[in-house]
Write a structure and sequence with these properties.
Blueprint lengths: L5 E5 L3 H12 L3 E6 L11 E4 L5 E4 L11 H12 L3 E3 L4 E5 L4 E4 L9 E3 L5 H7 L4 E5 L3 E7 L4 E6 L4 E5 L1 E4 L10 H4 L11 H7 L10 E7 L10 E5 L4 E6 L11 E7 L1 H11 L6 H16 L10 E6 L1 H15 L5 H5 L1 H4 L18 E3 L4 E3 L2 H4 L3 H22 L1
Parallel strand pairs: 1-2, 1-13, 2-9, 6-15, 13-20
Antiparallel strand pairs: 3-4, 5-8, 6-7, 10-11, 11-12, 14-17, 14-18, 15-16, 16-17, 19-20
Helix pairs in contact: 1-3, 1-12, 6-8
The protein binds flavin-adenine dinucleotide (FAD).
Length: 404
């Protein structure tokens, strides 16, 4: 039975979805708001349709995750029992472009590799449907206002729609807290940090450098049989850092062989320095697709021509990029963006490289009952995001269940 104490969770990435599920299981009434059309954030799955109508699915964000944390492993066990997660038992390793050799590093792997089934987003999808959770997709939160007299948060959508009043809020993306780059995103900053000075203090002067990435989705009619591994890091390449066979994961369709390539951060940065931060044009994405495929073919690995290829760029990855490469790209940015550069160090990313709440695992304003979670709080991966989401739910449920 869910009570009338209401919590808003902003973001259906793994940290927000885990947080929402825990709060709802404790009887609180949870509403999840997500800008995207579906759940998962950086664990989302992409559906592509070829010209002849064939449907292709790709995990274009995190390809898998590992964990050595007992709390996370407990959740993973539960998800495995529900059929949402499976172990990806294939051969992994590396390819050295200098020696043109694959190395199987399977024996060095201590942790199991887990994937969502049938897509990386399956966990978030299921958590968003749990009893007590209402998920509203395609709903960007534009403002979070603290109503002092009512002791409540008021949540407003980007389009001005009133999304309701809530006793507590979980925010699971840095860009909700940090100054906007309106000229690039068109989005105002939803939360005024003056409302939560303790959180603002913790955010101050802590850079969160990140590594940008392009992902290239490829589909082949025939298996790439010359590749002995299903996932490998690529050494000594200026363009490519990782490749994996997405269709080799458990629960995927075997109608075609689908691979994903990840670019190096340096390559992605070089593209930003040439094009700026605007939404990439189809022509740019086509160029990136061709360059990444060509880089793979030039490694000497025998790769046939794909019948489908498409590059994907995550805008948030790029905004974060600036923190590590701002000196080299400032000249290519609009002047108003240049002035915001230092604040970008706090914004969302593909892989934030530092954490800001290693001890508490989330940021927390007890008086106003607002928790901030996400991978940037703990470690730049799925495990870190889960740990942070659990911590945020734990802070909020403790106070909401005792005081209200
Ligand atoms: C290419 C790539 C490869 C990766 N590889 C790995 C890997 O191998 N292993 C691993 O463990 N991790 C990997 N990661 C990292 C992993 O995906 C992330 O650490 C994790 O998914 C972050 O989850 P999160 O909940 O913190 O954030 P996110 O997944 O980013 O979720 C935040 C959500 O908030 C939503 N949101 C933001 N603002 C608003 C708003 N105003 N209103 C409504 N919704 C909003 C966003 O749309 C998003 O869905 C990879 C990531 C990428 C991009």
């Amino acid at each position: 039975m869910h009570n009338t104490t209401r919590v808003a969770v902003v973001g259906t990435g793994i940290s927000g979805a885990v947080s929402a599920s825990i709060l709802a299981r404790n009887g609180l009434s949870v509403t999840l708001f997500e800008s995207a059309r579906g759940p998962g954030g950086r664990m989302s799955q992409r559906r592509e349709t070829t010209e002849d109508g064939t449907e292709l699915m790709f995990d274009h964000g995190a390809p898998f995750f590992t964990s050595s944390n007992n709390g996370v492993l407990g959740l993973v066990k539960e998800w495995q029992l529900r059929g949402l997660v499976a172990e990806w038992k294939e051969k992994f390793g590396s390819f050295d472009c200098t020696s043109s050799k694959f190395t199987d590093t399977e024996q060095d792997q201590v942790c199991k590799r887990y994937v969502g089934v049938p897509g990386m987003n399956s966990i978030c999808k299921a958590l968003c449907r749990e009893p007590g959770v209402e998920a509203r997709f395609g709903t960007s939160v534009g403002r979070l206002d603290w109503l002092q007299n009512e002791n409540l948060w008021m949540v407003t959508a980007l389009d001005g729609q009133n999304l309701g009043h809530f006793n507590g809020v979980v925010v699971s993306d840095k860009n909700i807290l940090l100054p906007p780059i309106t000229s690039v995103t068109g989005r105002p900053q939803p939360l005024d940090l003056k409302l939560v000075p303790e959180i603002a203090d913790k955010l101050q002067d802590i850079p969160i450098p990140v590594h940008p990435c392009f992902a290239l989705m490829l589909a082949f009619a025939e298996p790439l049989s010359s590749i002995p591994l299903k996932g490998f890091s690529i050494k000594n390449s200026e363009v490519l850092s990782w490749a994996h066979c997405d269709s080799s994961k458990p629960g995927r369709s075997a109608n075609s062989e689908r691979w994903i390539l990840h670019s190096t951060a340096e390559y992605a940065q070089s593209i930003i320095s040439q094009t700026g931060l605007q939404k990439p044009s189809d022509a740019l994405l086509k160029r990136v697709s061709e360059e990444l495929l060509q880089a793979l073919q030039m490694t000497g690995i025998n790769v046939s021509q794909p019948f489908f290829m498409k590059a994907h760029r995550c805008l948030r990855c790029f905004l974060l990029e600036i923190s590590i490469s701002h000196t080299s790209i400032l000249s290519s940015l609009p002047s108003q963006v240049s002035r915001c550069t230092l604040t970008f160090t706090h914004r969302g990313s593909a892989f934030p490289a530092t954490s800001i709440a290693r001890e508490e695992k989330c940021l927390w304003d007890r008086k106003k009952r607002l928790a901030v979670c996400g991978d940037f709080c703990v470690s730049p991966n799925v495990e870190g995001a889960i740990i942070s989401g659990v911590a945020a739910a734990s802070k909020l449920k403790e106070i909401l269940l005792s005081c209200l």
